[in-house]
Input
Amino acid sequence: MTDNNFDLAQASKTIEKAGEGVPPLEKWNPEFCGDIDMRIARDGRWFYMGTPIGRPAMVKLFSKVLWHEQGKYFLKTPVEKVGIQVDDAPFLLVSVDQQEGEYGPELVFTSTTDDQVIAGKSHPIVVEVCPNTQEPSPYIDVRFGMRGLINRPVFYQLVELAEEKEINGRSVLTLESQGETFELGSF
Output
C-alpha cells in the first residue's frame, strides 16, 4: 500500500470498530501493506503527508493501534499493517502525579494521547544522555515495546521529587515508584 491507496478516514472507521481502549494488537497478524507518509515528531505532534493532524481525537485513535516490531513502527488493524516514521519515541509524557499504591509511592504519567502509565518494574524510567551535548533524555516504557519521551517540564518535576543517594561511591538522584528505584542521573 502506498499513500495513494491509504484512506485516512477509512482507517479511522476501522480502528473505531475495535472499541475503547487499546485493542489486542498482539493477536492481529495482518499483511504488511507498505509505508505511508505519516510521522510522529519528537515533540509528540503527528503529521500526515507533511501536514499536522489537527484533530486530537484522530491522533488518540491512531495511537491505540501503534505497533513496534524489529525496530520499526506501524499502524496495525485486523486487516492491514502500514509503516510510519517516528523521530524519537511514539509517545510524549506531559504530566506526572504522585499517589500511594499497594507498594508505596507511585508515579503516574499521562501522555498527549491520554495513555496513563505507572512507573514500576513493567514500566521503567530510563535516562539516556547524549554523548555530544550531555543533555538527558528521559523515557518510560509504555506498551508493546514502545516508550514515551518524558517532556522537559515533567523531568524537572521528577528532579524536584528525587532524593540524593550514594550508590557505588557516586551521588545519584533517585525516584521510587511501585517499590522500584530509578536513577535520574549522577553528579
The chain has three helices and 15 strands. The chain has a mean pLDDT of 90. Helices lie at 8-17, 56-63, 152-161.
